[in-house]
Each structure stands twice: as structure tokens, then as C-alpha cells.
């Protein structure tokens, strides 16, 4: 009995659901399905996506939550997931792994999404997590990025900006204009570390939303993907974007920077025909989350962001988070379409 | 247009096959299937699984090959895969990425296994690759680890030990008893860097093999998993394990160390009823690979390794590769069952 296998057995082996073959063979087996299988994969890298001293329970939660969020954006029902763990020796620690597993499995159990396979390896540098998640959705009902049409409303769930604000405070950015940093961090940190994936909303939007995406890199950048895939433009009212009291208390440029440009929100941004407004509101209520109209799709070009008075917003945040930044054409009040 | 998206577009975006939604949405969509979906995931970490100066084309090949090998061990037909890339800035380089993509896609095309999604992120340390692969197999035909029965033959495909020998030479181990290191490395390096997954053999063994596994951690350790899952023991003849001329030229203890303990072989080890010998030989011939009988399953306990004269082998290699080694009970001539 070796250390690696014992460690996997102790923390990550569970009985696979009926019809599935789980951890402990060369492959997991997912049951045949009449629906399409939605697949999403995410890497989480220490120092990029989480701090070295992260609460392992929160890390377990968030690594699965960001993948569930991708299923939500597709209108898919979670089925199962596989986990890759590259661990430096200090992480091969019962307390750390058991807290990580507790956070991971609490969310997995809440969404009926079992762990069915994985890979564990040593890393000589930091911790890297890889999760690939599976969901089921009738192919015709899947919410794609490409379905937005001129005239559609643009909606967003929940509030935006808290995770970005919390991250700036944790990173020690000195110029963030808040008086009581500890109080603001306490109010916003949950959004960064314990995001709640909008799976129920995604399911409720089947047949209703024309396009959807989850906000991982920032509203402007992610909405830009929807518009590019749909071949449309949009007009977005910056002051209609819903924010928490903590973000609302910021000066306008900072408020917009966090709400429009901030990543890690894991809310859904979606489009729907204007005549479906009442049904969208009902779907959101059924899913237990707020949904707010923030703009409208048009024939374009590009994404035009205006303030409450209809004037172009001059100090737009950069186009979201980019892991490999390259020079971007700076066009005040307008973003180039991504593709 | 940002650097990350441009980089993905340039090197990794291809048109998804009919019925699949590929790179460029929140999830990929795999078509409904009457068969079960076999899923396997692997992490490859720089410094653990490949050298920093690895040929990127070989790395692209090998990262997919090790996953195809898991499908082969299950008797599954490759369907599609997703790729996670955590890259330090020096790797965000057109020449490196295009060579990596060339090696990856050449193998993907050869096996009809398209890339349908992924995730790219920056790493501040080394390169980490994550691949999750999908295959299809009728659930009843899947080759599991748990099907071996007393009386079954134990078989292995190809030859074992070359990859381990090449790795020892590349690591500069000074005590490897070879006269001409360069010549031996030239003869064995291909097995380490360009493994050929035994997908055709896995398919040919459906309905024929009682259990199968691919040899990634070493024959003794991987066969141990089959025996543990099947609740059996086995007697294995060390001198029947097929080796290349380079490994055959080593002194016996070294030959056994490489062939029985060496990882990264990506050959199949499988069991089949004795009465199926002729059909196994035909299946291997059809798949274009040698298959050699190396022992027999029995009621146990444990795995007993003997030499050509039937005597216990005294200097068994350690039980394969373990990423998190812990003290192992040293039982000469016998390995504890893994679980």
C-alpha cells in the first residue's frame, strides 16, 4: 500500500452512483444518455487563482463552483466530475486535504454531482487543480453564446463587483477608496471565496434565454464574447448594473471598474427577447436569484457603454482579465469585438 | 482582441465535428450516445513528467498518448478530448506552441479524436498540462480491472523497460551498466517520448480479455491493481516478460528492474481465459502488436514472481512509481496487494 494510493483512498474515494463506474479503473464510465453531454474544464493555479494560504475548504468549494458555473451558463444539469491534483509535499497533509475534500464534496453533494475519477501527482512548485465537469442538456435546449439577436434584452443575475473589490483589498492595493478596509473586506470576501453557481437559473432559462455566459473574466469581456459569437452589438447602461452596498458606496469610476471589469463573479449574463421579460423574472424568482436588465442587443458595431444620462462612459475599465495581455486598441467608450 | 484568446485561436481552434459543439462556448457538447462514455484525466507536470527542455512536439504527442492509453485499457473508442494549459510566459511563444500543437493534433487526427474545449492560464512556475479524454464503449464490453479469474493467462503487449532505461540515462544515473550510453539512449528514447497507445488492441480485446490495465507505473504495481480489484493472486515469470535488445543486454537484476518496475511503458497488461489463447494471438496480430504470455492468475495470495527455473526472484524492483512514497513493507519475492 503506497502513500499516493492511500491518500486518494482516504480523501477522494466514494461509491459511484448506479450506472457509473467511478474512481479506481483506467477510466470512469458515464451511463448512455439521450441528451448531449456538456463538458467544461478549468485549471486553478496557486498564485494566479488562489493564494498559497487559502482556506482549503473554500478552495475545494470554489474549484468545483467555477465548473458548475460553466454548466449553468449552458443550461446543463450537473452529472459528474473528475479531479486532477498536482500537490507539493507540504500539501500532502491530512488536515489540508480533508478540509479541501469537505468543501469540494459539500458542493458536489448539493448539486448531485459525484466525483468519478481523477489523477494525483506531485508538484515541485505550487498546487495546481484541474476539474473537468459533465452535465446533461438536450442539444436543442443548450444556452449557447451565439443566439443573441438585435432587440433582445441583456440581463445579469445577482450583483457584480464584490469579488473584484475583495481581491483588490486582499492584494493590498493601496488606492482602493474605502474608509474601513476590514469591514469592506468582510462584506465582500464571501463573493470571492464562496461563489454560488447559478445552476438553477441556467436550467430555468432553457427555452427562454437566447444566449448566456458566466462572468469569469469581467462583464464587458464576457458579454463581448456573446456579441462576437452572435454577430451583434449592444448598448449597456453602466449605472443599471446591479451592485452590493459595498460596491455602490465606491466613487463612480471605481464602482464601474469593479462591476463592469471585475472577474470571478460567476453570475450569469444572458440575453432574451423583450417579450419574455415577465417569464425571465419568474424564472429568476423560481431559481431564487435576482435578475436585472442592463441593456439591449442591437445591430452594432461593438459594445457601447453609457451612463444613466445616456452619455458614453469615458473611463471604462480594461477589457477584463487576460492571462497573456497584449496591446489593446484603446477606444474610449467602445470596446473592440472579441473573437 | 487579447493575447490569450488570440493564442488559443491561432494554435488550438479547429472546427468541431458534426454533432459536437467545440472550442468557444462555456462547455463543449458531446452528442448523445447509446454507449457508455469512458472518461480519463491526466496531469503532466514539468519536472515530474517531462524535462523543461523537452521537444514540444514530443510533449504534444505524449500528453495525448497517455490518455489514449487509458481508453485502450478500457476497450473504448476515442471520441474527443479537452486540454488545460498552464503556461509560464517563456512558453507563450509561437514556435513552442505550434510544435506542441503539431505533435498533439497529429496523434489526435490519427485516432479520430478531436479537441473540443479547454482552458488556458498563466503559471508563475512551470508548465502543467491537463487532458481529459472521452471514448465510447458498450458498458458490458468495457475491459475493467476487476474481471481476472484464477486460471486466466496474464499477457502483456509490446516490450517493457525501454522507457525506464531511457529515463535513467537522461537523468544521468551513473550506475546504469551500459557501455555505450549514447547508443542505448538512441535505441530506447522513442519509447519514452513517443509512446504508441494500444487503442486497436484494446478494441480487439473486447469480449476476449477478462481484465486490462495500461502500464504507466510499472508492471508489478499495475498488475497488482488488477489482482486487487479482482480478488486474485498470480504467478509471474520474470524472464518471460518481453524486452527489447537494449534491455535484454542488461544484467538480470537491471533487466528486471526496468521491465518489471519501469513506468511510462503504455503497453497493455491483460488477462484472458486459457482457452482463448489462439483468439488473443489473432487479436494482437490484427492490431499489429505483439502479445506475450507472462504468467497466470491464481487464487493467491499476492503476486509471486519467479525466474525461468521457477525460483522466487530475490531482488524485485520497488513497487513501481509512487508520487508520494511512504514506507513499504519489504517482502522479498512477494508484493503486498494494493487496494
TrEMBL record, chains A, B:
<dbReference type="Pfam" id="PF00586">
    <property type="entry name" value="AIRS"/>
</dbReference>
<feature type="binding site">
    <location>
        <begin position="118"/>
        <end position="119"/>
    </location>
    <ligand>
        <name>ATP</name>
    </ligand>
</feature>
<keyword id="KW-0808">Transferase</keyword>
<dbReference type="GO" id="GO:0016301">
    <property type="term" value="F:kinase activity"/>
</dbReference>
<feature type="binding site">
    <location>
        <position position="70"/>
    </location>
    <ligand>
        <name>Mg(2+) 3</name>
    </ligand>
</feature>
<comment type="pathway">
    <text>Cofactor biosynthesis; thiamine diphosphate biosynthesis; thiamine diphosphate from thiamine phosphate: step 1/1.</text>
</comment>
<keyword id="KW-0460">Magnesium</keyword>
<feature type="binding site">
    <location>
        <position position="26"/>
    </location>
    <ligand>
        <name>Mg(2+) 3</name>
    </ligand>
</feature>
<feature type="binding site">
    <location>
        <position position="70"/>
    </location>
    <ligand>
        <name>Mg(2+) 4</name>
    </ligand>
</feature>
<keyword id="KW-0479">Metal-binding</keyword>
<comment type="function">
    <text>Catalyzes the ATP-dependent phosphorylation of thiamine-monophosphate (TMP) to form thiamine-pyrophosphate (TPP), the active form of vitamin B1.</text>
</comment>
<feature type="binding site">
    <location>
        <position position="214"/>
    </location>
    <ligand>
        <name>Mg(2+) 3</name>
    </ligand>
</feature>
<feature type="binding site">
    <location>
        <position position="41"/>
    </location>
    <ligand>
        <name>Mg(2+) 1</name>
    </ligand>
</feature>
<feature type="binding site">
    <location>
        <position position="70"/>
    </location>
    <ligand>
        <name>Mg(2+) 2</name>
    </ligand>
</feature>
<feature type="domain" description="PurM-like N-terminal">
    <location>
        <begin position="24"/>
        <end position="137"/>
    </location>
</feature>
<feature type="binding site">
    <location>
        <position position="216"/>
    </location>
    <ligand>
        <name>ATP</name>
    </ligand>
</feature>
<dbReference type="InterPro" id="IPR016188">
    <property type="entry name" value="PurM-like_N"/>
</dbReference>
<feature type="domain" description="PurM-like C-terminal">
    <location>
        <begin position="150"/>
        <end position="306"/>
    </location>
</feature>
<keyword id="KW-0067">ATP-binding</keyword>
<dbReference type="InterPro" id="IPR010918">
    <property type="entry name" value="PurM-like_C_dom"/>
</dbReference>
<dbReference type="InterPro" id="IPR006283">
    <property type="entry name" value="ThiL-like"/>
</dbReference>
<feature type="binding site">
    <location>
        <position position="49"/>
    </location>
    <ligand>
        <name>substrate</name>
    </ligand>
</feature>
<feature type="binding site">
    <location>
        <position position="217"/>
    </location>
    <ligand>
        <name>Mg(2+) 5</name>
    </ligand>
</feature>
<keyword id="KW-0547">Nucleotide-binding</keyword>
<dbReference type="Pfam" id="PF02769">
    <property type="entry name" value="AIRS_C"/>
</dbReference>
<feature type="binding site">
    <location>
        <position position="145"/>
    </location>
    <ligand>
        <name>ATP</name>
    </ligand>
</feature>
<protein>
    <recommendedName>
        <fullName>Thiamine-monophosphate kinase</fullName>
        <ecNumber>2.7.4.16</ecNumber>
    </recommendedName>
</protein>
<dbReference type="InterPro" id="IPR036921">
    <property type="entry name" value="PurM-like_N_sf"/>
</dbReference>
<feature type="binding site">
    <location>
        <position position="40"/>
    </location>
    <ligand>
        <name>Mg(2+) 4</name>
    </ligand>
</feature>
<feature type="binding site">
    <location>
        <position position="119"/>
    </location>
    <ligand>
        <name>Mg(2+) 1</name>
    </ligand>
</feature>
<feature type="binding site">
    <location>
        <position position="42"/>
    </location>
    <ligand>
        <name>Mg(2+) 1</name>
    </ligand>
</feature>
<dbReference type="InterPro" id="IPR036676">
    <property type="entry name" value="PurM-like_C_sf"/>
</dbReference>
<comment type="similarity">
    <text>Belongs to the thiamine-monophosphate kinase family.</text>
</comment>
<feature type="binding site">
    <location>
        <position position="42"/>
    </location>
    <ligand>
        <name>Mg(2+) 2</name>
    </ligand>
</feature>
<keyword id="KW-0418">Kinase</keyword>
<keyword id="KW-0784">Thiamine biosynthesis</keyword>
<feature type="binding site">
    <location>
        <position position="264"/>
    </location>
    <ligand>
        <name>substrate</name>
    </ligand>
</feature>
<feature type="binding site">
    <location>
        <position position="26"/>
    </location>
    <ligand>
        <name>Mg(2+) 4</name>
    </ligand>
</feature>
<feature type="binding site">
    <location>
        <position position="321"/>
    </location>
    <ligand>
        <name>substrate</name>
    </ligand>
</feature>
